[in-house]
Amino acid sequence: MIVPSFLSLLFIFFSLDVYANSDLSTHSDSVNIIAIIMFLIFISITLGITYWAAKKTRSASVFYTAGGNIGGLQNGLAIAGDYMSAASFLGISGLVFASGFDGLIYSIGFLVGWPIILFLLAERLRNLGKYTFTDAVSFRLQALPIRSLAACGTLAVVILYLIAQMVGAGKLIQILFGLPYSLAVSIVGVLMICYVTFGGMLATTWVQTIKAVLLLFGATFLALAVLNQFNFSLDLLFKEAISNHDLGEAIMAPGGLISDPISAISLGLALMFGTAGLPHILMRFFTVKDAKQARSSVFYATSFIGYFYILTFVIGFGAIVMLTNNPSFLDEAGNILGGNNMAAVHLSEAVGGDIFLGFISAVAFATILAVVSGLTLAGASAISHDLYASLFCHGKVEEKKEVMVSRISTIILGIAAILLGITFEKQNVAYMVGLAFAIAASVNFPILFFSMYWSRLTTRGAFIGGAAGLLTAILCVLFGPIVWVDILENNEAIFPYKYPALFSMTVAFVVIIVVSYIDKSQQAKKEIAAFDDQFVRSQTGLGAESAIQH
Question: How does DSSP assign 506-525, residue by residue?
């Protein structure tokens, strides 16, 4: 089944190449043959990996966690590949290009979440869980309500994140190759379905690892090429950027991107604690054999991600200097072609010509494919493992049947992602990512944190508190400036802030604590008494799922 899919996809891409070249009168500046070739090379390699992984994916453990046999370094690279999305590479460098120093608020927020994961979650999560983070949460809590809520939170995060990635992929391919937006989104969706359906976590891990290496190499070369123009002096780069940017010295001062302190705090909380609640990231801690490897994978991931964000800062300022006054990269109105998110792509052409442009474009595409594969697998796992196997079948289901349900879920999620990506073409991508992080911070993180560290937590408290956090986040968004004013075209927002995390997280934490304290049921007493057993398991790993050879 894989081989025909592989050949058909190659045929599609070669057809697209012909199509693009047949319409040169319209898209002469967009078609990049080198990039298309590099796309084909990357896709060929990753589909080959998928074919190899498919032959080894014979059990639920291999499908969900690659058998728990991935090393710390590779898992760290895969996590970095999963986390360094198109929003990071294209979005943050675009924010720095537009707002200067203030663009770092996203980099810092994204990065600060990792020490939390390292010191609070990684080890305990690996020792307590099996396939998903809900396995760890439901260790002493009732499975039915907890898994239901966690699955809803997971799917909400996955869908919002998927929309952002699909829109980014569509725009990238549309601009570079002159293809229709809907066709570009469909290509990403089809490839994503192939990776996850056939190869599971093993294929996804290798795709993410390869992508991380390529992205780090490309970003390093791009940053070094920029610094070389200024004798590797950041001072000269900043001075030149100030003289080229419309805002002048204001680009070196904070407050240009988010001037409201409440919004800044709320966004920071979402990025910081949302990272520790992302289901596709938490899932990766079950791919290593023990808690030691889980810790080391976080260390490696944090190092790679931190290094990468430093590079995006240099790339953003380099784009200010090299693109702002270059008519080759500007439209008639003087704005950068394709919007600010394309700053890194255009910069690659400015410093390395068509060959490096092709490479960076292919890497950006690979970035999106790797992230959507991880997201889709997390969403499919929530449906098949948390809902179907654990709830509907009460844990009594054959592994083959569970994997089959997961593969069907992958196809459904892939089709949904394509349709939603087409529907939300005009929406603010960065905001949707921020919203996904806010939901993760308001639902997944509080439940996960309290389940591990607070003995008084009860199922009733976790469920009602998590649901309250989710509902608050959704209502704040619906009545906030983006939806209520920009989309529904009302005059004034009922909720005045764009980012809900400060309020939704507070509601979740307070409700969890209050409800757990007033819960005096017999079930609550059993759950509190079971904390000691959970603590021993979380510290020692006795009884934890072991790695298997594949």
Answer: HHHHHHHHHHHHH---HHHH
